[in-house]
Amino acid sequence: MSHFSAVGAAPPIEVYQLSRDCQADTHPQKINLGVGAYRTPEGKPWILPVVKKAEAQLAEDIDAETINHEYLPVLGLDSFTSAATAMLLGKGSPALKEERAFGIQALSGTGALRNGAEFLVQQLKKTVFYFSDPTWGNHGLVFKNAGFTDARTYRYWDKSTCGFNFEGLIEDLQNAPEGAVIILHACAHNPTGIDPSQEQWGKIADVMEEKKLFPFFDCAYQGFASGDLDQDAWAVRFFVERGFEMFCSQSFSKNFGLYNERAGNLTVVVKDKSLIENMKSQITLIVRAMYSNPPAHGSRIVDLVLKDEQLYTEWRGSIKIMSSRIIEMRHGLRERLEKLNTPGQWNHITEQIGMFSFTGLTPEMCQFLLKEKHVYLLKNGRISMCGVTPSNLDYLA
């Protein structure tokens, strides 16, 4: 009898299973709308030219022994975390000026969420967290595995309008217990692609301030959503200006195309800078027990690009290219659906923003598309707009 005889099979992760099934499909018109990764107009992965330049420079630095493969500090590459934090908060941020903000390098956005969640459980004894209904499929798993015991949702998607259920969100936050942790999407909400307006963000902040709720932003798409780094960071900066203490996970998977390099940052904003050293010491122990040290390559690429004016300018051009292509595909898909007199309203496809569109299709419709038409999408109706290309638009519509 094996020690592991009682281990049962876990359900497959839907998005990765979709990709495997699509890869095995031999149909000439198959479309993969599941995976959240940028694709060129030809449907190919894109290594950003600026990333290639940064990697070439890093290779030269290794040859010159300017950099090596020694361990990074436990909390990461200082110049990277500083640059990432400044990119998020803005160089004129009051938190930066008053030295009340710092960053912790993490294993992309997922790792930043986990580091922050474990700290909140261990040090602040948090137990209740809220995430939007629907949300990114990993939010609940990360926070539960970090030790949170009470997972709750706040309303977000209005199925009847394929729009934003703002009233439901506000009511649910008003009913949340004091001190609860609220996961908020900084921009390009996953999976709906619907973001609150600036006025709505103001009302959300009002309720959270009144109820003493703790904001934990997830910022996976800064620059990738609208093409504008400042616009995509507006909500986070607004909360900082309102005086909130907060965590924000940052990912450079999408806006740098560094999916497998796991380059991420946890930005922390506090009211009193004298608290920072103690907080860092506790996060050091969390990291030490989990993965000991972060990887260097992806963070060095981001660090080099953010601090080199020429590379930084080129990178901003790249994120504009990616975001513009996605916006173009949104307009193309809506236009074709309307020309075909497809039942229903399709304005939500162009009103949404970012990588994903929540189509409003039922699980039965999605299953039909997958089995009969070789269109691979999540059963909740989410599609990755990056998988939509000029060559497959007509077939998809």
From TrEMBL:
Catalytic reaction list? L-cysteine + 2-oxoglutarate = 2-oxo-3-sulfanylpropanoate + L-glutamate; L-aspartate + 2-oxoglutarate = oxaloacetate + L-glutamate; (2S)-2-aminobutanoate + 2-oxoglutarate = 2-oxobutanoate + L-glutamate; 3-sulfino-L-alanine + 2-oxoglutarate = 3-sulfinopyruvate + L-glutamate
Outline the extent of the Aminotransferase class I/classII large domain.
Answer: 29-397
Q: Which Pfam families match?
A: Aminotran_1_2
Q: Which UniProt keywords apply?
A: Aminotransferase, Cytoplasm, Pyridoxal phosphate, Transferase
GO CC, alphabetical: cytosol
Name the domain of life this protein comes from: Eukaryota
Keyword Cytoplasm among UniProt keywords: yes
Subcellular localization(s) per the UniProt record: Cytoplasm
Q: Name one GO biological process term.
A: aspartate biosynthetic process
Task: Return the EC number.
Answer: 2.6.1.1
Q: State one molecular function term (GO).
A: L-aspartate:2-oxoglutarate aminotransferase activity
Give the protein's cofactors: pyridoxal 5'-phosphate
Please tell me what else the database record remarks about this protein.
In eukaryotes there are cytoplasmic, mitochondrial and chloroplastic isozymes.
- Subunit structure and binding partners: Homodimer.
Q: Which family does it belong to?
A: Belongs to the class-I pyridoxal-phosphate-dependent aminotransferase family.
**NCBIfam families named among the record's database cross-references:** PRK09257.1
Q: What is this protein called?
A: Aspartate aminotransferase
What organism does this protein naturally occur in?
Tigriopus californicus (Marine copepod)
